[in-house]
Amino acid sequence: MTTSLQKPQDKRLSDVSKGEEVTLSTVRVGLELTSRLTSLGLTPGVQLQVLQNYGRGPIIINVRGTHVALGRGEADRILVEPSGGA
Fold this sequence. Notes:
The protein is of the alpha+beta class. The protein is built from two helices and six strands; from the N terminus they run ββαβββαβ. Strands 1-6-2-3-4-5 form a six-stranded antiparallel beta sheet.
């Protein structure tokens, strides 16, 4: 899941506002965290909706119908792009 290619429209998940829907583009993490994120359903191309992002503390997202809480450090390493419907 790690790649150095970043599209101009990509931004960090931690920068996405509450209610915004995005598509996961790239995950820039090591193997251990990649395995954890994959088991949570966070794979490239999946649609996400940010349910909570106060600018600090955990970020809560809806992915594949499940609410997932991510630490700010994890969210900083997940790159997303605007969803097609946005």
